[in-house]
Amino acid sequence: MTRPLFTTPGSGDKAVARAIDILQQADFQVMRSFDLNAARAAHVECSCPHHGTDLCDCQMVVLLVYGQDGPPATLTAHSRDGRTQFALVNDPAQRPSPDLETAIINHLLPAFLSYPPLEVHLV
Hints:
single chain, 123 residues, alpha+beta, TATA-Binding Protein, 6-stranded antiparallel beta sheet, 3 helices
């Protein structure tokens, strides 16, 4: 289950690169654990369930964000049709500290607020 944080205009690759840069500058360690475009590259016959074509702008990236200690938070970025939605995974099997999640939100939201139009989903 994911908890949506915000949606921003732009491609998933650019939004994810920006998020990684912001988090690394804030001394978080960020590891990309899944990248849909990389996984899809090996399967040229796959078609997009949203667009019906294999040449689409859909992207899904899963980032593990590590603080100073404890388990990482899982941040997802799902993009399609020129918009990227960021969300935190909310799963009892993988529970990062609430302080880590709050710190991630507090670093990402202000940085992306400067990219209107922005839809903010309060947590």
